[in-house]
Amino acid sequence: MTEASPLNRYQLAELGSLLAEPARAAILLALMDGTTRPAGELARIAGVSAATASAHLKRLLDGGLLGLHEQGRHRYFRLANDDVAAWLEAMALPQVTRKASTTAVRDAALCRARTCYRHLAGQLGVVLCEAWLQRGWLQAGSDGISLDEDAADALVRAGWQPASTRQLLQLRGRGCLDWTERRLHVGGPLGVAMTSAMLEAGWLRRAQRNRALLPTPDGLRRLAELGVRLDD
């Protein structure tokens, strides 16, 4: 499933059938944080037997939603790519629109900041994207979203590693529709690298129980200095 290969009605129906089974949906949601997990762990998360999980994983692999990493006798599963994560994130939008009291929406930490696959989503991701577009630090063009050199210099002064920050200038991102905010955050390779830099700098830390990202006091202070302010 790629932007270059639009879905026809039969492919769309097949994707719908893949999500119609709660165990398969649970597997996909468990991998939305960008992790790679073994079949046994995914079986426990989905609440099914190892044999049933194996059948579900095969269907998801055949459907192009999962990727596979084999290491010796061990097999590890992940989402196929960022496109799949963005599609799954967008699939939640109608649920948020119709029923704002869902468990996910009630989880304040998840709404505030979380991973969408491997990049920053939620209120913080949206506010960052909008603030830096307005400053001109992010540039939206026909080839995607890019980081401006002035932004890279400011981020290095704020504590990001110089070498990795300069590499961001070579990457491109894209607008990814946020399922709780219904606005855009930065996805794609640039979004992934920016999120990794914030984690490395200690501005964010990962929650243990779900894919929430927890802004640290120092991270919030430094982001505010860079024009990114969250409402309390």
UniProtKB/TrEMBL annotation:
Pfam families in UniProt: HTH_20
Which SUPFAM superfamilies does its entry note? Winged helix' DNA-binding domain (SSF46785)
Q: Where is the HTH arsR-type domain?
A: 4-99
For this protein, the record's SMART domains field holds:
HTH_ARSR (SM00418)
Question: Sorted alphabetically, which CDD domains does this protein's record hold?
Answer: HTH_ARSR
Domain of life of the source: Bacteria
Q: Which positions are tagged coiled coil?
A: none
Question: Which named protein is this?
Answer: Helix-turn-helix transcriptional regulator
Q: Which organism is it from?
A: Dyella acidiphila
Please spell out the taxonomic lineage of the organism that makes this protein: Bacteria, Pseudomonadati, Pseudomonadota, Gammaproteobacteria, Lysobacterales
